[in-house]
């Protein structure tokens, strides 16, 4: 960024005032025009105008070091010798005409409407962000979700927000404020989050202090109680998975990491399971199966559930398999008593038969061997886009429960119909 001290600028004529946003001449600014920008450090910086917003009296300036900044027009000074910078499309590198370009509000890169993917169809675009900046935003959001500080003090007994003020979707996965966990931060329910069995709020993996094994994407096979609902002590136990659940979970995570419609059993699925075998918190009946015998169980699981979960490539079963719907496996449903703190004794002696769940005993810290591959990214932006998570979210009216049989589709249709009439 070229910086110029304020004292070094000398006006040739004291009668000629510096143009600003209050002068008529300021409306003659054009994109690509080189200007000097007066910033808070009392210096002038050389750049060119990439985008103009006259209604807000602002312009987006791109400097020589490729940094960009929105500034008020009153802080912009036109160069004595007016010159313009030709703007080229960031994709085809051909000069962009003013009537056929979109300028990103984040990076100030210029695109032809047809060159940008997806193609920009709207003709009047005032606030627009290119696909590269959108992907960076999504990556940053996911990194925030999965790098939330794990220094949460144990025995949290109160959330930093009003849980009852949150409005949830019909599946109780997304709320209107994007507030989750002890920390009150953002999150995605299928990305390393656990749902409390009582308050139904979602909690980040790194904020949950009682987890020992890593949490895979979409893995909801847990009985979990947050410390707020369980009198200051977290409680988490593993629900046993069947072979079909394991294969389903593996395909879901593989899709999030490397998006494909079908995966080869020998080349993709079995190697993935072998690499993550000791870290997926499996029941002994699965964990103790020898490596050479696992393919039989995997193939049988795929063949048994071709109507709902899995699909094969072609008209006849082959070695290539994928998920019919790119959704995580569904855990068994259960309801915990609301007013009684849950502990190991209560769970195994009084609630086990009522819940109709097969629950693993608590793990020992010495039993876990974390796979080194888990330190790598378990998903990609392209993979997350491939999942069926972008469907329209139906937010329930405040006061209506998001689960159970107290809400019917007819009630929802009637509510939204009345709302439209109003």
From TrEMBL:
Pfam families: PHD
Designated name of the protein: PHD-type domain-containing protein
Keyword Disulfide bond part of the UniProt annotation: no
Keyword terms of this UniProt record: Metal-binding, Nucleus, Zinc, Zinc-finger
Keyword Metal-binding: yes
Domain PHD-type: 86-136
Region (Disordered): 1-25
Biased composition (Basic and acidic residues): 1-14
Location within or outside the cell: Nucleus
An example Gene Ontology molecular-function term: chromatin binding
